[in-house]
Amino acid sequence: MNVLTYWFHKLGSPPVFDRLARVLAPWCYGLALVLGAIALYGGLALAPADYQQGDAYRIIFIHVPAAWMSLFAYIFMAVNAFIALVWRIKLSEVLAMASAPTGAAFTFITLVTGSLWGKPMWGTWWTWDARLTSELVLLFLYLGVIGLYHAIEDRRQAARAAGFLALVGVVNLPIVHFSVNWWNTLHQGSTVRLLGPSKIDAAMLWPLLLMALATHLWFFGTLLARTRNGLLEIDGGKDWARSIVLASQPGAAGAATERSHV
Amino acid sequence: MTPTRKRRLIIISLVLAAVAVAAGLTVLALQQNMTYLYSPSEVEAGEAPTGARFRLGGVVLEHSIKRADDSLQVDFIVTDRFHQMPVKYTGILPDLFREGQSIVASGSVEDGRFVATEVLAKHDETYMPKEVADAIAKAKDTHAAEPGGSH
């Protein structure tokens, strides 16, 4: 077994992941809050006003990072669902299901901030153009995955069924991304591009990218915390889970010993 | 890879491929039906539904906005720089509405004129400070003022 597969297998084991996540999660949250605050200050105070939209464009610093995360969280969920379905790795099942609520939250933020931005600039809260509609479908996909996961009693079966739905929903991702190119939409095209120059001034770009980094960190913070919970729930009867719960709650340890006396 | 995992991998890949093909065909089929807006040229060519509501998209022609004195009625011309379409609208316009701005108006054609019930402003994906926009406009003007400047 080479080093890479060794670490892959080691990380896949719930107790090792739990120990790692316990250390990393606070760092993710902390860095996300600090970077997010800097990005917010940069976007709301330092960045210049837009030539066309004035100060109203500043909602971009929330809207666009949230929209990126709504897609990123789905890709992350789908990749883990795929691994869970083929290799039946317990950690992947939990990771896939743990990314759904945060992804749904980011999708909801995208829709709400887009609506708030649309009213003054476009003149409407909502319109059924391809970009807005496919993003709404994305929210429904997230809610469907979460709903299906909680509708089935057995946690592992539930994760695989919901993971399958998540995988099928992947077809919506290119539609969300390319909708502004494929159809005539009210929504404008992509501003920040991986290939070719971005269509945003450098003074406005850095807070946007910094906020994107902060939202990614926040996503991984919630992911680690939620995955720890999920693993403890599934492995509740196992020794490693019992020892962690008992160690974190001195009262519970006392209660357990008391119960053993009765 | 064990035979079971291989079988699962093949089944899931096949299902995903089937879903992708289905989605691709749906998108292709919707390409014609899912037109959010029609340009004045398309309306001219008779591609827009006659007598029914549709969305008209284009740029507000410069110096074409006429506001009524006693009501909220606005008359303007929407152009795609090939054909023009006169538009009538009564109501409050979005902040970004002005000459040279892309707009999307929904309504229907009555007597060769587009009567809009809603006018939305479309903006592009470019964001820059006002000074930069002014500098670009100024550079364009000086370039245009010097005939043969490109030689």
Description:
The complex is a heterodimer of chains A (262) and B (151). Chain A has 262 residues and is an all-alpha fold. Chain A is built from ten helices and no strands. Chain A has helices spanning 3-11, 14-46, 60-87, 90-121, 130-151, 155-168, 172-182, 202-234, 239-248, 250-261. The mean pLDDT of chain A is 90. Helix content of chain A is 78%, strand content 0%. Chain A has a single domain, classed as Four Helix Bundle (Hemerythrin (Met), subunit A). A five-stranded mixed β-barrel of chain B has the order 1-3-4-6-5. Classes of the chains: A mainly alpha (262), B alpha+beta (151). At the A-B interface, α3 and α7 of A face α1, β6 and α3 of B.
Largest interface, with counts of residues having CB < 8 Å to the other chain, equals: A-B, 41 and 40 residues
From the coordinates shown, what is the CATH architecture of the largest domain in chain B?
A: Beta Barrel
Number of separate domains of chain A: 1
Beta-strand proportion of chain A: under 5%
CATH superfamily of the largest domain in chain B: Nucleic acid-binding proteins
Keyword list:
heterodimer; A: 262 residues; mainly alpha; Four Helix Bundle (Hemerythrin (Met), subunit A); 10 helices; B: 151 residues; alpha+beta; OB fold (Dihydrolipoamide Acetyltransferase, E2P); 2 domains; 3 helices; extended
